[in-house]
Amino acid sequence: MLRFGYDIGGTNIAAGVIDENNRLIAKDSVKFPRGEGTEAVIVACEALYRKILEQAGIPGNEIAGVGVAVPGSVSPETGVVIDAHNLGFHHTPLAAMLSDKLNKSVNLINDADAATLAEHRIGSLQGSRTAMLITIGTGIGGGLILNGELFRGGRGNGTEPGHMVLRNGGRHCSCGIDGCAETYCSATRLGKDGAAFGKASAKDVIEAARQGNEEALNLFRQYIDDFGSYIASIINLLDPERIAIGGGVSGAGSFLLDPLRKDVERKCFFETCPEIVVASAGNDAGIVGAGLIA
Question: Average pLDDT for residues 204-209, to the nearest whole number?
Answer without folding.
Answer: 97
